[in-house]
Amino acid sequence: MGIVAVLAAAALSLAFGSRLVSLGEIADGLGAFARGEVPADVGAIAVQERIPRTVLAIVAGAALGLSGAVMQAITRNPIADPGILGVNTGAALFVVCGIAFFGISSVYEYLGLALLGSALAALFVYLVGSVGPGGTTPIKLALAGAATTAALSSLVSAVLLPRAQAMTEFRFWQVGGVGGAQWGSMAVVVPLLAVAALVAFALASGMNALALGDDVAVGLGVRVGPTRALAAIAGVVLCAAVTAVCGPIAFVGLMVPHVMRLLSGPDQRWILPLSALGGAVLLVLADTAGRVIGSPGEVEAGILTAFLGAPVLVIIARRTRMRGL
């Protein structure tokens, strides 16, 4: 069912935009793309132009949904999300420093800096959230993430404000979207995303045990430290790789796992793959809606996910009262 939903969302993405195309034009565009040809019909050309961004939206949405599910599982925090825990902002700070001070421009440079910034931000938030009695708790992680995000956002502004050229380059990346999809950049990040996703899926049973508490997990034979560390690395890599290509897209990793948990229950062996499928559907639909709403221009998908995610965050916080999962 999830795969059918992804295919349906992809079909809508190919059909809708500044120009509505028919099923015949979609078939012509896909056929010409498969043959490596440029179609003569304008509608088919529009379809062919939409294929890269549709594929990127599927890949990025799946990675963000999976990343959010992993982070919520290992922290037992119902509002864990790459954006809320400072991971996106850490990537943004390192990327903007690379643009401002080193003139980076290639996807490899973006990817390396985004990975480094995300990892350091995640580690810092976890260490700060672990300080004090009781160790790591959901509310301490959320507060540490919020404070870290605010501090890093201020540093980003401090770097950008005196540098107009860097600000011009960064603002297109900062919004978050799939409009700049290119096959070359996807070829760089997709293998990394695939490895991180396989690691996350392999650790699903261990994350089920972590949800019962560390002591119970140890009693079940789970190596708590390595399991949590590997899962955290997988979650950070999934988020950072997407951020390097698309910019910071918030709230996908927050919303989707909660919906999937309501549908499938608490078993991570179901939540993880369903979150990947749900994230793909959400980001593809957000991108499609942004093109329709903003026609003849577009509203970036990151703006729409933030618009949807903010009230969802408030609802989740009120319902859970910051309890663990």
TrEMBL record:
Keyword line: Cell membrane, Membrane, Transmembrane, Transmembrane helix, Transport
Gene Ontology, cellular component aspect: plasma membrane
Pfam families to which the protein is assigned, alphabetical: FecCD (PF01032)
SUPFAM superfamilies reported in the protein's UniProt record: ABC transporter involved in vitamin B12 uptake, BtuC
Keyword Lipid metabolism among UniProt keywords: no
Keyword Transmembrane helix annotated: yes
Membrane topology: Multi-pass membrane protein
InterPro entries, per the entry: ABC_BtuC-like, ABC_transptr_permease_BtuC
BP GO annotations: siderophore-iron import into cell
Single annotated GO MF: transmembrane transporter activity
Family assignment from sequence similarity: Belongs to the binding-protein-dependent transport system permease family. FecCD subfamily.
Name of the molecule in the record: Iron ABC transporter permease
